[in-house]
Predict the structure.
Amino acid sequence: MGFLQRINSKFLVISLSVLLLLYFVVFPLAILLYDSVLVDGAFTLENYREVYSKDVNWRALANTVELSLIVMVASVIITFPLAWLVGRTDLPWKKGYRTLLVASYMIPPYVGAIAWVQLLNPSVGYLNNIFKWMFNLQQAPFDIYTTGGLAWVLTLFYSPFAFITISRAMEKMDPTLEEAARVSGSSPLRTLVDVTLPLMAPSILAGGLLVFIAAGSCFGIPAIVGMPGNIEVMTTRIVTYVYMGDEAGIRDATSLAASLMFIANALLFGMTWMLGRKDYTTISGKSTRPNIVELGKWKWPAFIAVGLYGFIAVILPLGSILLTSLLKSMSKGIELSNLGFDAWIPVITSSQYMESVWNSVVYGVIAATIGTALSIFIAYLAVKTKVKGRNFPDLLTIVGGSTPSIVIALALVITFSGNFGLNLYSTMWILVVSYLVKYMTMSVRTIAASLSQVHISLEEAALNSGASWLRTCKDIIMPLIAPSVIAGWFLIFMPSFYELTMSLLLYGSDTKTIGVLLYDLQTYADTQNASVLSVIILLIVLVGNVILNKLTKGNVGI
Amino acid sequence: MSEVRIEHVFKRFGDVTAVNDFDLTVKDGEFVSLLGPSGCGKTTSLRMIAGFERATEGEIYIGDHCVSSSTKNTFVPPEKRDIGMVFQSYAVWPHMTVTENVAYPLKIQKVPKEERAARVAEMLKMVHLDEYASRYPHQLSGGQQQRVALARALVMRPGLLLLDEPLSNLDAKLRESMRFEISSIQKELGITVIYVTHDQSEAMTMSDRVVVMSRGVIQQIGTPYDIYRNPANKMVADFIGLVNFVEGEVQGDRVYISGTGVSFPNTSGVTGSAIIAVRPENIRMSRSGGTIEGKLTHRFYLGDAVDYRVQCKHHEIRVIVKGADLKEFNDGETVYLDFDKIMVFDRE
């Protein structure tokens, strides 16, 4: 009896989660693809031909590829030595540096873009002013509104993807592989070239591809840094077309989005294949200890170099935003008498602003709560059962997570505007659905990882003691995975809370979120209110990350 | 071929002394094992000889060269020490074929191509891998990978071969056959070998001499026969083979089992409170006439022997009788024990 019930409830859970995911992930993406190759009911590539016959779209595609390549190469070149210094040497203050180097991961990209515009815009950028004063220059030395400026900001914000992938691979590598080269007569440098680099090549490439995809899918940074300088990329073109509001606009946006999705998925597929190659797995003995390289006289120069990078990448932009939010008057200089919370008062007391903050909190909480509950089922299914197709729901969440946000948003617009029954347009639910599609994979990953640590014998021992399956879940499994469940909740809540790209296409007059509000303020050149709101977002994200860090002992974070 | 001298070497990690006054000379062509429980400092000592750890104090010589000295501030990096090394994890490079792995040290030394090929072929033949030359490591079994590592370590004809628990990832049968293979290759080449292991039978069967270590300190250096028959202290006696300990008191030139009148001649030089050690196979058990009375509590049949537990007052004594029949003695029976060969140690 109990056994039958168990099978049935499992079957119910799998069918329900598969159906939900098929309906909200696969169906909209399929509709998007279908729409892109269909004119008047017949299959044709006419839509693509038309959209790419316009010069501006070609340029956007070329810009996207060019920028993503630059950002990918720059990220790998910057992060490889950083990962090596932090992971494999006796660099002082390594733990602090590791946190600092992944910190831009938790800053919303558009907040970073706003900060760098403040620092390096050609007319009043803080850094430009400092350089002008220091070197007695007539003109500002840097202009952020250029391809170089855009690549700079994208690199600073997406290189943590490469850093995390590369340093993980470095820690996992068996150090005796390098030691074997040393006793074979090879110098440390030669060992790096002959053994370390070839072995890490798949991970380096994978990290680079992650950066490529992230940079190419990003909307916030190109919108804030690129558009003022007339640099268009795929994502900004898609948004422009959607904002035209007519059928032709949606059609062109759809073709562009389908191309972007194709590029991203092809690259991800290639990456998965590369990392899955078996010939690079090695048996490692139980005594693998970290092989720490002594830097000797380079110790302190390296310490300063890494610190300088961390300062430029994280502290400088955050400081700039904080400073701007604290200026009493933007027209006066940076002096003590001009500092105060004056700019904060109108923001905090504005019911319009606070409504957006509240909306974002509410949608984030709803998405995180539904998402975590679903994640538990999906993770349990994948890790703990032998049901056929147990990995399928998990795979669907990965598809959602790896699809560019702009593509998801457009697909949801097309699908859930009433054309196929359900009409979610302009409701909060379309926002919640988009957050779930995009971010659920993170919490599934986290919960699955901790579930796989709970050995099956622990469950069996409980069943053996006479507990039912549900009782076992409550008494044994849930307490053991509780920290990862809460971590999973935050991993959905935080990116949903400050989400911009999807919200921008999906919000309605009553469902404006903090990301959209901030984007509006920046577009209307209301730098100071934008800075105040940015600081509020950063504070909430910071609190969330501190909780996350405490719960997972630093293993998971945004 | 090289003699290795390690003179008063210390290794400290912060407040922890991992290796404490390690002093050893390994003769040219000798096979020496460092044996001890995990954390005893044996691997750290080996890594100092290899050059992967720097000795905090003391000097290390390989052949005539001082490779590490704290006073002269000398430190020769591993690649310049003329050593071969085999790791527990094999450390065979997964992105190179068997041939490329073995040829790598020759490539570094810029040995000409033809000579390189000939020497690699010779080495692969010696470790019976000539048929696997173009395979990649993931296509080999653990034992084969370990032989690749061995060939790679020997291809430069180094003066010294270091092995760090090379067999502990292999299954029991393979481990035994690899023991003989390593031994015979060592004899054939006449190379000096330092071998780290926690497995006493490995150390006993392969080595000319065994260095027993515990908590960073060398407990005893001796031939396998010596350390088994004449362990220097209680730790060595306990770690090598099986042993029973009973408390004893030395009075005059005899040592008494505490609380009994049973005594043995004492030649150990220990005075006062002592520990009497006796190996299970050095005890005779009989139904009458022995010196120590006890009650037989358990019997375990081992095939070639029977393993008995006998309760004698407050000591449980383990007795192993080779070739015995299980039915010779019964549980609960009163038996008498005679200790044939005892050892006497300080109580510590």
